Amino acid sequence: MNETKFVSVAIDGPAGAGKSTIAKRLAAELGYLYVDTGAIYRTVGYHMSLMGIGPRDADGIRRCIDDVNIRIEHQADGLQHMILNGEDVTDRIRTPEMSKMASGVATQSCVRDYLLEMQRELAATHNVVMDGRDIGTVVLPNAQVKVYLTASAEVRAERRWRELTAKGENVRFEDVYTDVVKRDEQDMTRKIAPLKCADDAEVLDCSYLTIEQVVAEMKAIIRRKAG
Ligand code: DC
Question: Across all residues in the chain, what is the average pLDDT?
Answer without folding.
Answer: 95
